[in-house]
Records
---
Amino acid sequence: GGDEFAVVPWGATDVPRAVLIAEKIVEAVGKPITIDDQPITVNMSIGIAVFPQHADDADALTRRADVAMYAAKRARSGFSVYSVDQEGGDNGGRLPLIGKLRYAIDQFELVLHYQPIISVPDGRPTKVEALVRWGHPSHGLLPPDDFIPSAEQTNLIKPLTAWVLNEALGQVHAWSKAGIDVGVSVNLSARNLLDDELPDAVAQLLSTWQVEPQKLSLEITESSIIAAEAEDTLRRLHETGVEISVDDFGTGYSSLTHLKRLPVQEIKIDKSFVLDMATNRDGAAIVRSTIDLGHNLGLKVVAEGVEDEKTEGLLREYGCDFIQGFHISRPAAAGLLGPWLRNRAGANGALSA
């Protein structure tokens, strides 16, 4: 990442000498500096791995230093020396996984599954949501909740998002060549919106894959649009012609002011309100009010978490524009989903794969 670098000391180095070097680096970097009369303090985390004690080749040594760095980051200890227990086991949690994620991106361990979003009036799929999975060699197929939160706390979210965007737009291009006209929706994190290189990167990928900008929707959470720094990125993304969608609407902190001021075209009602709306009058009232609110603001409305026919019927009655959920189709690999999209099964069939 852009905020990470490696130090290879000159000459023979054991753990005590590496620790001494790390202490000096932390001390030097931690000294306050002044920019525009404002004191600035920089914090850093260092992971230490020593040859041949911890690994006997450059790739393994770098990876183990990476694991140690995330241990230091989590402990806020400044630096940490690699140890086997940092690699985890059943209680290893996200730390060992995030230390290996950068290699998973390069080694083609990540895969995308897609879940259709259909138009309520005619049941035709208009786009699919891209959902990343990690085919971990030891832990099996990992859902995004197992590694995305940790990636969002580090600069790894940038290459991960770039991979997802490239893979998703490449798939839209492939489907288009096969006669399947469908767009794609990709999730962005709050950290992505602080990346001023993102709009240009998105524009370049759209050009590379010859995908029309309106075929790409970028999903952001309510909490991520509060940051003032995110507004410029959102406006620049909007200028590329892509659609901006507010995900998990109703669970965050956005206000009507944000929705009016920012270039948002769509809101997605969080599935927590949709799942039991067929049996919960309060939930149904919230969903209906949110649909009306969205339409009054000139926004399209998507309902997530549609898992039965009765819920779909209520959403149709309330005038919801689009729906998504297991009742329509479970997320599936592109190869399985292609025929379903081609036949435009929509509400007439459900994919169980």
---
Amino acid sequence: MRFLRWLLLTAFLLTAPGGRLLRAQDAMINPEVGRVNLRAAPSLEASILETLPGGTSLTVMRLSPGGGWLYVMTDRGAVGWVYRELTTFIREDAAVLLDGRVRLEPTVIERVEALLALGRTLGRRSDAFAKVGDSLTVADHYLKPVAEGFARLADYGYLESALAGFSGDSFARRSLAAGVGWTSYSVLTASYADSETCREDEPPLLCEYRLMQPALALILLGSNDVGVLDPGEYAHNMRRIIDLTTARGIVPVLSTIPLRVGFEERVDAFNQIVRGLAAEYHLPLMETYAALWLLPGYGLDEDGVHPNAPPRGFAGSVDFRAGNLYYGHVARNLTTLQMLAALWELMDDA
């Protein structure tokens, strides 16, 4: 089965620039097949997120290689993968070409544009994003190689707009809102802040926002939470992070967390919380879990927690040529840059 995942990934990565996208509400669960599983990745091995009844309307975000699976959003805001043969298309002309770009739903675009407008009145930097997270975000392999000029875009040339648009310090900066071993509680707690840089009683999250004045915040938290917090505490903390971020005219860009070996069910539960919050608040969501799930070894290092690095290490982590796409850091960087490119397009149009 692991070899099958590898083959599926190979097809996914090599064909993503020539994939397909479907227009919103042009598909539904076939009423004649009964209930259909919504899965976390395009495979029968993937976890079941929920079960959809026949007739459920679907917004189709993209197709898997060969079109066998659909990445969808339901009319209630749930997102995941469904098997295409169990769906029905409403219009024959639904399909249009996609070159691997992220598609943002109209409600997300509206929310993002409103937050960007608020941010401009508050003096936020349109060329800056902050990074909020744990050791997965602290890692030198995450985005920092972009600032060193190592990016090799290959078939993803459209990412150049994000590389050129956002400042180098956004990619290179060691965020004060990210720390090794941190949880969602940590970024909200002043005792975790850098005492030499942050103000008294200022939590790391707000310290980083004050110093960076970013338009966006890339938020991935939960890999440590799954071992120490219950889902209710995690949801409370994440909601607080979102509220503090949006109140300052900063767009929270949420991310699901990768698989963590030994905590598979907890990861599924916490990712459902992230997906639910993204839907509730109409926020951009990066599906990091799905991006790494199909990789050999789930894209993880030997510790079963952190993404693994490609053969060329730091420099290779932003090399998106076909033969280098099978590593966790590469997949996460690509997923992040695809989202940044989509958001930069909105910012550039403003």
---
Amino acid sequence: MECIAIDVGAGTQDILIYDSEKRVEQCFKMVLPSQTRIVAQRVRQATELHKDIFLNGVTMGGGPCVRAIKDHLGAGLRVYSTESAAKTIYDDLDRVQRTGVAITRQCPDAIPIETKDIDLSAISTVMRLFEMDVPERFAIAVQDHGESTKSNRVFRFEHLKRVIQKGGDLQSLVYIPETIPEYLTRMRAVAQTLADFDVVLMDTGPAAIFGAVDTTDQPAIVLNIGNGHTLCAILIDGCITGIFEHHTRQVNIERLDTYIEKLADGTLTFEEIFESGGHGCYIKEIPDEMPRVIVTGPNRYIAEESRHDITFAAPYGDMMLTGSFGLVKGMLSLNGDGNG
């Protein structure tokens, strides 16, 4: 079985060409700029040319591209957008229009910029250049806050809380197009982009958590320090039983160490994380004692001075593909392979 597993982050898209006939270490892989950075660069190029832009496509991850769009407006230039592309900026289209974006179906007098998390054409081109066929299966991870006209941080954690309350096991965190909740619009947009393929989807956080561990026999705390977000979870008996998420730029190791300790003993609250600018926290069950702490992610160096006994995860010898390995585990779990 072959599959393209893509972990879509704020800085990079980490791609594993999985082939069950090979050892994982021998599978081909790529680490490329994420689509939000590529779209941001295209917007900035239009800004430099003093040209208006027309956003068309599907809802995708924000961050760099949204900042570039706002800078474009700040330069006195026009931004036109379809409704689906505009939801990349905010779910509330009235709020989008208040920023100065004009919602329209077509705009012939502007530079068109397509919004999407997965550029199938670009990936296919790269693979063909290296004499590789595009598999019929894709496994994709994106961070989906969920569609909400209120706080997307609160809404995201309401979703994660429900998933953990229902079990928090790997299989419960994997979706196929037919099972994606209506409000997970970013995942649904990816499924739309890849409508001609077999697709499974996960959130980037759980994908990294399950990808970082080689066994779930013993309790563990797994910390993923990404380019945009930092997520930390308790794993007990192969299930996520507690979790917090923050913005990487807003944390340092002293704060992270404290959060880890309070997560482990059950005293960390949603309010403490949320009021400090993070997404939130939810704890269902805690370990009997402080478990091993496993750290992964492109900014894992932040944990080098931790006061905890840290294990730096590099599954199959490649830390950058942690989320992609978790995606493969998730895909295999749907096929009845409990070990991934």
